[in-house]
Amino acid sequence: MNTPSAPPGITVVIPHLNQHNALARCLAALDAGTRKPVEVIVVDNGSARSPQGVVNDYPWVSLIHQPIPGPARNLGAAQARGDVLAFLDADCLPDAHWLAHIAAHMARDPHTILGGDVRIERKGRRLDPATAYQAIFAYRMDRYIAQQGFTGTGNLIVHRKVFDAVGPFKGLHHAEDRDWGQRATFAGYRIGFAADLVVYHPPHTATGLRLKWDRQLAHDWTRCTGLGGRIRWAIKALLLVPSPLCAVAEVATSPRIKGARNRLMALIGLTSIRLYRAQRMLSLLRGHDPERLLHRWNRIDLP
Fold first, then answer.
1. pLDDT-derived band at 38, boundaries 50, 70, 90
2. Which of 138, 302, 103, 97 is nearest to 208 (CA)?
3. Which of the four pLDDT bands, split at 50, 70 and 90, describes residue 1?
4. Which 8-state DSSP code applies to residue 247?
């Protein structure tokens, strides 16, 4: 293997939890890039077995352990030697030019927080409903930035001085990407969408999608307070039922997938997940324990 030659100053931080196969693919993709990483910190967040065997193949990867559920990225950032922090999820595959584009962007404006493009990894032309749905609607960082003032932590680039000024991620009981991004926006930092910072995320199965929404809804429920909040929550749950009808035009015209069959699959997948979300929201309203939803997520490796 060639000696790493990535620009100094960039540390890639990868949180990991029971995703050995995915982590192996992620590190292999970094190794195959046009610029090799100088420093990668994998922060294991309490896996059933250590990923030491995976990281041993790469001398530029450090493995540290954070047994407390949640704040893995914070420990990685605290131990990083680089001036720029590039947060990447263990189940993501960075494009070959990912690090090179990061270096170029940060050289132009080191004070801008960047959210990259997260696309669904696809195998074959015929998509199942869950994959087709995610190809259109999942990980829309451009929309999150424009509409809600945050970007996802699976492809987040920030200068460490900016990160330190905003403060650490808040961990398991918060939607940490949304919370951190909105704190940064409130503090006056600009979050920009960088379409050339591309990483690929494997599609979740239908079960995986439901578990992901369980976690998101558990986070959202903590912000739902008072009678007014409960009423708005109930209304939103009920509106989710007919909402797929409003997305028909977007499904029919989206450039993110091709073919009438795949568009039909996307609509089926969208309808299924919206109905599930409505059912789960109403169950929380009836007293379902949100803690149970938080701890079901991310316990097994992706296939």
1. confident
2. 302
3. very low
4. G
CA distances from 59 to 25, 70, 84, 95, 124 (A): 16, 26, 20, 21, 34
Cβ contact 248:136 at 8 Å = no
pLDDT of residue 296: 60
Give 201's contacts (C-beta < 8 A, 6+ positions apart): 89, 91, 92, 93, 118, 119, 120, 121, 138, 139, 154
Q: Give per-residue pLDDT as tens, 138-192.
A: 999 999 999 999 999 999 999 999 999 999 998 766 778 899 999 999 999 999 9
Quote the Cα angle for 108-153-244, to 5°.
Answer: 115
How many residues are there in the chain?
303
Closest CA to 152 of 114, 125, 120, 185: 114
* 174/70 Cα distance (integer angstroms): 9
Q: Residue 72 and residue 64: Cα distance in Å, rounded?
A: 9
Q: Chain centroid to CA 11: how far?
A: 18
